[in-house]
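Q: Got a minute? One more chain.
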Amino acid sequence: MNGSCLALLVLWCIFSWSRAFLAPATQRASFEKILTRGASKCGKPLFAEPTYYRNIDDDETDDDEDFVPKPYKEADPAVLAATLEEYQSLKEQLLKDTLLFGSGCSAVAVVLQGIGDGLIFFAGVLASALYVILLGKKADSVGQEDSTLGGSLAVGNSRFLVPFLLIGSLSLKNVVTGAVDTTGPNILQTVPRDQFVCAILGFLSYRIPLLYRQIVQAGVDQDQLLEMVPGSVGKAAKLAREAREKEE
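A: Always. Here it is, folded:
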């Protein structure tokens, strides 16, 4: 494995870990957005509306000893159960989509690159599925009492080690089987470029179904997708849409 590939892996891991520890509020907001999306379909809010503890006027002082804060309203159990069920279904669907899409791409890799690279691509897909599972563990740990570096948070953040384990296992396999020459000057190049590319593409295969599902849930139509394409294709799609709107 050459130095540039190793540097890319290190940079990716540093960036991912920085996002995990420097932006916890953003991750919590995303998780709560997933939970509240299902609640809106049930017609009732999952999280209680804010309840003001007291109404302070200009003539009032803050030293009222008889003041008793109002308790928060309890969440609707039926809405909470429906939302959690939808959340679990979302995680299972994402894992299923990752395996199905990755398996199809692995079959294409077998046809184009041979059985060896196809199997390496599928190993990347399995690593991708493991990453999705650990990502779900990370989302489950949000708001829990053991959401610390020594608890479920550590389990979820261990997903950042998955690509290193993938490439490390591939490197070890090549060394043990003698598939690469480790006696020459390039002793660290134990993963050929084609194997590295297949493994990484297989590992990133979870992103395509995830992006597709986000687009479907957002209700983006074909014209909007074409407008997102950079260059003349996007401009042509935008002009065509504007022309249709003028005719209507």
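A: Residues 20-32, 38-53 have pLDDT under 50 and may be disordered.
Q: Perfect, thanks.
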